[in-house]
Amino acid sequence: MKIIECPRDAMQGISEFIPTDIKVAYINQLLKVGFDTIDFGSFVSPKAIPQLRDTSKVLAELDLENTSSKLLSIIANTRGAIDACNFEEISYLGFPLSVSEQFQKRNTNKSITQALNNVEKIQNLALKNNKELVVYLSMAFGNPYSENYDPDIVAELTEKLHDLDIGIIALSDTIGVSNPTNIAPLFDTLIKEYSTIEFGAHFHTTSDAWKEKVTAAYLNGCRRFDAALKGFGGCPMANDNLVGNMPTEKLITYFNEDLSLNTEELEKSLSLSAKVFK
Fold first, then answer.
1. At 149, which CATH number?
2. Best CA proximity match to 4, nearest among 142, 168, 189, 131
3. What is the tally of structural domains in the chain?
């Protein structure tokens, strides 16, 4: 079981700039908990996500000597991938590929076809620089743009990513429209068909729906979950009303198993999050 803690996702939609030293203190605290991966920052245009313009400064101040957690950074194009590859501390590059043409253009200023071409280039960069590429299939369960949606579209994109030897794909519910009816068959089908791909769940959810989403994914083979403490965050590129992330503490309670997490440091992180996200 892997929990990917996502302070980057929690922070990116906040308009008031969070000082760099506060980000550093918070992520350093999260690094003590023992999460598999910390999605800590993003090498994207400061104009697109001004909150994350200090990612390289934050990275320089992280204490990585006594942590088992790996670092993931979001990138949206080859330039961002090149920037991220300059840092040995980063293990994973995360790229948002969308089932929705509108969202792909809104998020990366590219069509889906252009974005797939970028994925191929970024995959080559990642392999040359000892990184692993994680592709987020956003709008995987539906979108708000009245576009044609079908699980077969998700399957077709997965096949193309498989051809590029992508090893990790996170099925992403960017706006909170997933439910057991669409979650269960998608994970069941894809996990059975692509044994070489690790499928993750990146759910955005309301407070009353988180459990049914986790249950549907877990019972159909998912063992990788993205989350953020207290469910903070959401995607500012999706629509005007942010739907929060999967609350990490609820995931931990739900699985009720040895996740090799330091519970004392987790409590400190929860306490600190209230100060970071006022």
1. 3.20.20.70
2. 168
3. 1
* Burial of 13 from C-beta contacts in 10 A (0-12 / 13-18 / 19+): middle
Distance from first CA to last CA of the chain, Å, rounded? 31
Contact yes or no for 145/104 (Cβ under 8 A): no
Q: DSSP for 187-207, please give it.
A: HHHHHHH-TTSEEEEEEB--T
Angle between helices 180-193 and 151-163 (to 10 degrees): 30
Over residues 137-162, the pLDDT tens digits come to 999 998 878 788 899 999 999 999 99
Which ranges of the chain have pLDDT less than 70?
234-243
Query: Sign of the CA dihedral 238, 244, 249, 255?
Result: negative
Please answer whether residues 56 and 68 qualify as being in contact, where contact means their C-beta atoms are separated by less than 8 angstroms.
Answer: no
Q: Which stretch of DSSP H or E encloses residue 171?
A: strand 168-173
What's the confidence (pLDDT) of residue 50? 95
Rg, Å, the chain Cα set: 17
| 266: CB partners within 8 A, 6+ apart | 33, 249, 252
Instruction: Give the global pTM.
Output: 0.94
Domain that holds residue 232: 2-276
Tell which residue, 271, 254, 141, 131, has the closest CA to residue 202.
141
Helix (H, G, I), strand (E, B) or coil at 135: strand
